[in-house]
Write a structure and sequence with these properties.
alpha+beta; five-stranded antiparallel sheet; globular; binds adenosine monophosphate
Length: 124
Amino acid sequence: MAYDDDNVFAKILRGEIPCEKVYEDEHVLAFNDIAHMAPVHVLVIPKGKYVSMDDFAEQASDAEVAALMRAMGRIAREAGVAESGYRVVANTGPDSGQEVMHLHFHVFAGRRLGGMRRQAGGSE
Ligand code: AMP
């Protein structure tokens, strides 16, 4: 799938839509989800134009992959949930229910997260 420059996260990256920024570096932006599903619900995105996890895994540089993984760990530590625990979800493609076609990792924390399926947005 080709990258669509009009997706909402592309607009956030260009500063056309505001966000509650949590973290930023050369390769990564992280901000609070607008419809949070847990006390901590942060979206962590690469600044590069990657549609999905599949796209990112295939096309991103080692530096971009490393920055994204390290950012998630840092965000969890700074939110104070590294010990209590958290969940990372990257919906990818139609079966996952991915709505925004710019790769994003959801970081959920701050309460008992329960079963995987509900938190992952599944209908089962
Ligand atoms: P997904 O279903 O994995 O594609 O998740 C998309 C997420 O983006 C949802 O959790 C939305 O609440 C979130 N979202 C959509 N628009 C915004 C926005 N402007 N700022 C922050 N989060 C957003």
